[in-house]
Amino acid sequence: MMLSIVPWMKIDGEKQPQRYPSAKYNNKSVAGITRHYKFDIKLQNVTRLCHTKSIVSVNRQFPGPRIVVREGDQLQIKVVNHVQNNISVHWQGIRQLQTGWADGPAYVTQCPIQTGQSYVYNFTILGRRGTLFWQAHISWFRATVYGPLIILPKRGVPFPYAKSYKEVPFIFGKWFNADPEAVISQALQTGGGPNVSDAYTINGLPGPLYNCSAKDTFKLKVKPGKTYLLRLINAALNDELFFSIANHTLTVVEADAVYVKPFETETILIAPGQTTNVLLKSNQNIQMPHFS
Fold it and tell me: pTM for the whole thing?
């Protein structure tokens, strides 16, 4: 059985922690440690909808690399800016207790990182377990600069829901053939809403309903009867989105890195910047159920 949604891009030449590709992951142990990552902000040519353009990216990946930590870990992320624009990175949903300067909003908690400069974000994961994400936090660079932040429980602490066969991040985004910076600049000048995107994406891929995108579809092979943990992330700028899988029920177990009492639903409404973990039990012996 295959759900119609291309496996996550691997980082060539880099050793990955088991099950979770990441950005220059430097630690072997995973409990109560300091984890070091490096984000190189660079331009990258990407083709979607038969249109190739240069986008701002992290480590030349779109979407950006995964960060994986445990609750109680300290994170040190060195961000190096190689592009001509100022940049900053926000860690959506993280409680910045006594580390407000690491929160990321440019001109609010920090000066942006200028061209050729670097900044080390240093904070500890407190009171969060589940799925969050990181994104650029200056102008509209978050249209392409974003990635998942996965927080595992402390070592020895179990999940409060059924164990899944596999975990899969689903990052919802938007693709503009135009430069997103030009889109938001025009909106600010006219006072109107920004022009709509050319496509919605799942893990950076628009899917077969868009022009030239039959091969640019996120696909997940599943086994009937197995339970999968889907980590849903809405990085689609300002849009509220609905998510469902035909002929399947989703069990919500976490929202914004806080466990919730599990409940079943056929459709998820996920707001901008929100994250939700759901369990999916593959119960249909069919070839191609659809996501919407």
Answer: 0.86
